[in-house]
Design goal:
This protein has about 160 residues and is mainly alpha-helical. The chain has two domains: about 45 residues, no CATH class; about 100 residues, no CATH class. It has seven helices and four strands; from the N terminus they run αββαααββααα. It starts with a helix and ends in a 9-residue tail after the last helix.
């Protein structure tokens, strides 16, 4: 039910404008009359993920075949890409960890960019998290294993 409601809200928002984030991560009003439709679609898409329940549903859909990634997202960020003020969520222990999958900028930002992933967007963060998991297993998130582990930790590939 929530997916249907979210889909309808996104469709209406896409057609008539909505709330989105600009480059400085403040909330702004978006109009589809703007010059760049793709920027509007991306901004509108990101705005819908301000609700952790919506983001949780998105992750469960994207990673349905790898439930461990859903657990990692829960433990790393409690299904949040943004903090309460609309800024990108950063790690408590390491401020270089960003977004819902807490991708570390120092180690992964360049590779993510080269591969076409934007770790500062929900879609890019989740997709690059999947890429890391496919390449390294759960090792990039080993520090949070006590939260999501309990026998689920995948050996390095």
């Amino acid at each position: 039910m929530i997916e249907l409601t979210t889909g309808i809200a996104f469709l209406v928002s896409s057609l008539y404008g909505g709330v989105a984030q600009n480059a400085t991560n403040t909330l702004v009003s978006v109009s589809t009359a703007s010059s760049s439709q793709s920027n509007i679609e991306q901004s509108t898409s990101e705005a819908r993920f301000m609700d952790s329940k919506v983001l949780e549903a998105y992750i469960k859909t994207q990673d349905a075949d790898e439930p461990i990634l859903v657990d990692i997202a829960r433990c790393e960020s409690t299904y949040r890409q943004f903090d309460q003020t609309g800024n990108i969520l950063r790690g408590v222990v390491n401020k270089g960890d960003v977004g819902v999958m807490q991708i570390n900028e120092k180690y992964h930002a360049d590779d993510a960019t080269k591969l076409g992933y934007n770790i500062y967007t929900v879609e890019g963060n989740v997709a690059f998290g999947r890429y890391l998991y496919n390449k390294y297993g759960s090792q990039p998130w080993s520090s949070s294993a006590p939260c999501w582990g309990s026998g689920n930790q995948l050996a390095l590939k």
